Amino acid sequence: MNKQIVFLDTETTGLQHFHQIFEICVIGHNFMFHAMVLPDEDHIEHYADPRALEITNFHKRNFDNAITQKELAYQLALLLQNKIIVAHNVNFDCGMIEELFSKYNVHHKLHNRKIDTITLAHEHLSVCGLKSYSMFAIRAFFGWSHDEAHTAIKDTEDVQKLYKKLIR
Question: Is the pLDDT of residue 1 over 60?
Answer without folding.
Answer: no
